[in-house]
Design brief:
With 311 residues, this protein is of the alpha/beta class. It contains ten helices and 13 strands.
Length: 311
């Protein structure tokens, strides 16, 4: 049994909350183990004035932490699952997946107005292509304003009046105890979440069985089933932050129900479908759903966006 475990994490308030939560659960189960938190600054933390889609997408928030994991400077990494690229570096794997927090998005507006009540021309802050495409699909009369930064920074910009509303992941707002700021929980029919949103990713080295033995009690099987279906959907479409892709898997008894979406940036064209099947075949069902959307025309959107990103 290991005597010390080092957790690598980003330094934002939310990232530290997540790492501290994992630390507390490990210590409760294994009081004989010392758990240390190591803060690692990622490229995504340093580049705050450029939309993610233009500077490399998801990997921006995990690469330096994964490098540290491969060098064995840390034993595990704690990420937000939605920040994880479809492919992991050789030698690393996703370990146990804890129970998911609320997976959806919330609207926070300066005047307490819901999405439907915002007047035409009002501005909503987000740098997520997934969010902006779905917002424009629901409300093409609204203006999307670029918004980067951690949760506190985004709220501050809203409070300063730089925009009329912002959209954030419900999980982060709840984890930081800011539920009182939420104006509206956006239904999946309006705003389908990012792949893995609301779930944590505990990443470790494939060959580190000792560490896995220590942390495997964090596993929540229904969450893993849902998240793996969503990630299979994303992987099949070869998606990232450069394209508006969303998915939500839900486990009911022994069934997985997954809804997936691919949209054009302006939100005018959206391909969306729901598929269900046996929970023990969740990844195959996620892949099948991706193929169905691709065949309907989603592949053309993805190819067009990828070409534009390379120009």
């Amino acid at each position: 049994m290991k005597s010390t475990i080092k957790i690598g994490t980003r330094g934002s308030k939310l990232a530290l909350w997540q790492a501290t939560w994992v630390k507390s659960v490990i210590e409760k189960e294994h009081p004989e183990i010392i758990v240390d938190i190591v803060v690692i600054k990622t490229r995504g933390d340093k580049i705050l004035d450029v939309p993610l889609a233009k500077v490399g997408g998801k990997g921006l928030f995990v690469k330096e932490i994964e490098d540290s994991l491969l060098r064995e400077d840390i034993d595990i990494a704690v990420h937000s699952m939605k920040d994880m690229p479809a492919d992991l570096p050789d030698g690393l794997c996703i370990g146990p997946i804890p129970e998911r927090e609320v997976p959806g998005d919330v609207l926070i507006s300066g005047r307490g107005l819901r999405l439907a009540d915002l007047k035409a021309g009002r501005s909503i802050g987000t740098c997520s292509l997934r969010r902006s495409a779905q917002l424009l699909h629901a409300r093409p009369d609204l203006k999307i304003v670029p918004l980067r930064g951690n949760l506190e920074t985004r709220l501050r910009k809203l409070d300063e009046g730089r925009m009329d509303a912002i959209v954030l992941a419900a999980a982060g707002v709840k984890r930081l105890g800011m539920e009182n700021r939420i104006t509206e929980y956006l239904e999946p029919s309006v705003m389908l979440p990012a792949v893995g949103q609301g779930a944590l990713c505990i990443e470790l080295r494939k060959n580190d069985q000792k560490t896995y033995q220590v942390i495997n009690h964090l596993e929540h099987s229904p969450t893993r089933t849902a998240v793996l279906a969503e990630r299979a959907f994303l992987n099949r479409l070869e998606g990232g932050c450069q394209v508006p892709i969303a998915a939500l898997g839900q486990v009911r008894q022994d069934q997985i129900i997954i809804t997936g979406l691919v949209a054009d940036i302006d939100g005018q064209t959206i391909f969306k479908e729901t598929l269900s099947g046996p929970a023990n075949a969740s990844e195959a069902i996620g892949t099948d759903l991706a193929d169905r959307l691709a065949a309907r025309g989603a592949r053309d959107i993805l190819n067009k966006l990828k070409e534009a990103a390379q120009e």
